[in-house]
Amino acid sequence: xxxxxxxxxxxxxxxxxxxxxxxxxxxxxxxxxxxxxLRLEWINQLSPLEGQKALDVGCGGGILSDSMARKxxxxxxxxxxxxxxxxxxxxxxEAQTPRVQYRxxxxxxxxxxxxxxxxxxxxxEMLEHVPDPQSVVTACxxxxxxxxxxxxxxxxxxxxxxxxxxxxxxYLLKMLPQGxxxxxxxxxxxxxxxxxxxxxxxxxxxxxxxxNPLTGRYWLSGDTSVNYMFAARRLST
Length: 237
Known about the structure:
Layout: H1 9-17, H2 30-46, E1 53-57, H3 63-70, E2 74-79, H4 82-94, E3 100-104, H5 107-113, E4 118-124, H6 133-143, E5 144-155, H7 159-172, H8 189-198, E6 201-212, E7 217-221, E8 227-234
Parallel strand pairs: 1-2, 1-4, 2-3, 4-5
Antiparallel strand pairs: 5-8, 6-7, 6-8
Helix pairs in contact: 2-3, 5-6, 6-8
């Protein structure tokens, strides 16, 4: 076991309290259900999942893990929130999801245990919740095979992101519980790009994700001012 677990107990408790609501599409996790098809298709276009070994870091209740398995990948979902993992396992049993398993283990510990084991690694909506994002990025890079893909999603740190992701989403529209995000933990694309370079990852595509509260529609764009995603590959040398 690592001496340092890169997790905030308050963050784990926050999501554990909501664990039973992960698979309710009208719950606090509704935005994740709504954006999942968009990000799944983007991942699958760049790194076709059929027949791959995929790792979902910070999998929570398994929304992305489950959908990647249904695309034909052999998926491992990892998280440190015990209650969320129990929900993920229960859903996999009830939905008879093939080729998915869940483990309560940190990404750093798994990187020591199984380096270079996965064709695709995803880490979505997690980096803004951990004390040391660089540690997570480095561990993801160690876990993917040379030439394999690593996908990250997080939130930019600027006035617009504060207004939309915190004030708008949590307080005005009540799309998320108040306190879900801390502005100081948001990550600028330049900072994430630097973390990827330090870890030996080559960032090949950056996409923004936008939302229209009037229509309830999400779409991918080139606007990374609030929510954004990185697609990077591990350098083969």
